[in-house]
User: Fold these one by one.
Assistant:
Number 1:
Amino acid sequence: MEGAINNDIEGIVAECGGACACATCHSYVDDAWLDKIPPMDDMEDSMLDAAFERKHNSRLTCQIEMNDDLDGLIIHVADNEY
Ligand code: FES
């Protein structure tokens, strides 16, 4: 989420600033990367239930902590501007 905000990526609104309280950083993780990112916790899972068009690969990008192993991570931004 911070990487998207800092690089003016459209669609990542991040109203709560990364507190896992708004779901406006909702995105879809490319299937090839699903097993490489850390699993979601209960709080993220609950917040995603409020997201528009949740899918099997939905994640809140503010909850994905980046590291070198995630270099090249492919994320498709959800429709967060409803
Ligand atoms: S920025 Fe609000 S839930 Fe991610």
Number 2:
Amino acid sequence: MSAPLSQLKGPIRALFSDVDGTMTTQGRVEGITYVALERLGEAGIPVVLVTGRPAGWGQAFMTVAPVAAVVTENGGVTWVRHGKHLKKLYGVPPASLPEWRRKMNILVNDINAKVPGAQLSLDSRYREVDLAIDWNEEASLSRDEAEEVVQLARKAGFTASRSSVHVNFGPPHFDKLSACLAVLTQVLDGDPAELAPYVFVGDALNDAPMFGGFPTSVGVANVKTWWDELDAKPAYLTEQPEGAGLREVIDHVLSLR
Ligand SMILES: [Mg+2]
């Protein structure tokens, strides 16, 4: 069972945060959440975003937001800084991507035929490694229909997982946890054997690998929406949902210094 956030002990060296449903509130980043992230960075605690959103979003976040690195496409593409330049780390060999994309497009046609209303997400155009079927953003499929999409993708040999808005699928095998460990060693000079000082915050099923892999993992309160379906549960829970929950974590982390 998860413990209340107040029991989380510090000090914390960096914050890894999911975006949709964790950094956002009702789909938007509130001004006070952005300020909280800035305060954390100013206190010397880097922020790493970890999202299923496309590589294109990662470049935007790296360019305009106070973040040290961005893991996008659930670990498919990770943005880091290399001197003053941005650099991408891929979760699968980049040379294999055109052939995978061809197979993925075939699956999209298959899904369209089998699950009425399933459509490619608007942001799929800006993806490099995975694609996303929209179930809960522009589209409104049931959870069962979304799960059917996950199963169709897995049956066809793809990695697939469901976020609060999309079903993401792509070539086997990449994941958020491996990408975060790469950020930990390459950007934060951390040791993957010593994960306790690094906190991860998330809200949905596609965060399960992080809840399982980061001992100091936190679920914002809305994670309870999918509680029984979560393969791995967060170690701690906030009282508030979404952005307010992330701000609870940031306030707590700052109080531990
Ligand atoms: Mg999320």
